[in-house]
Amino acid sequence: MTTRCAVQALVEAPVATLWELLADVERMPEWTPSMRSVRLLDGAGLALGTRVEIRQPRMPTLTWTVDEVTPMRHFRWSARSGGVTTCADHWLEPRSEGRQTEVRLAVEHEGRLAGLVGALTMRRTARYLDLEVTGLKGAAEAAVRRDAG
């Protein structure tokens, strides 16, 4: 069984600005209240196989492993707990000749208990994804204004 939650936003910033924010995973708590702390456990940055410890409000601390990275476009990380694998995707798609970027964030639960975990956490997951896309949009657009001024 699989459950999925996703959000998207159009951001007035180029892909490079958004990628810089997303790829610096340890600084995520600076732009989203859905993360208390993010700590690289190995490696110097976002790369295939990198493990990352994430603490979120009202959620267990989990170790996530980067499963896919396409620089400037996408990364996916996953965490396993109690028979469920949770995957989080972060997609960036350039729009308006590179002046804007469509951001898509998604969380998916897979496994025999995915339905139960999804039912118990879906509202919180949706709220956290909204906080993340809103925070990322605000940070990227602020960076563009700073660079222009």
Could you give a quick summary of the protein structure above?
This protein is 32% helix and 40% strand. The protein is of the alpha+beta class.
Record the SSE blueprint:
Layout: E1 2-11, H1 15-23, H2 28-31, E2 37-40, E3 51-55, E4 62-70, E5 74-81, E6 84-95, E7 100-110, H3 114-148
Antiparallel strand pairs: 1-7, 2-3, 3-4, 4-5, 5-6, 6-7
Helix pairs in contact: 1-3
What does it look like?
With 149 residues, this protein is an alpha+beta fold. Helices cover 32% and strands 40% of the residues. The chain has a 7-stranded antiparallel sheet, with helices on one face. The radius of gyration is 15 Å and the shape is globular.
Shape: globular
Radius of gyration from the alpha-carbon trace, in angstroms: 15 Å
Largest sheet, described in full?
7 strands, antiparallel
The secondary structure category is alpha+beta
Strand residue content: 35-45%
Query: Which ranges are low-confidence, i.e. pLDDT below 50, for 5 or more consecutive residues?
Result: none
- Count of runs of 4 or more consecutive helical residues: 3
Between the first and last Cα atoms, what is the distance in angstroms? 50 Å
> Major sheet: order of its strands?
1-7-6-5-4-3-2
The helix content is: 25-40%
- What do the pLDDT scores average to? 95
List the helices and strands in order: EHHEEEEEEH
Number of strands: 7
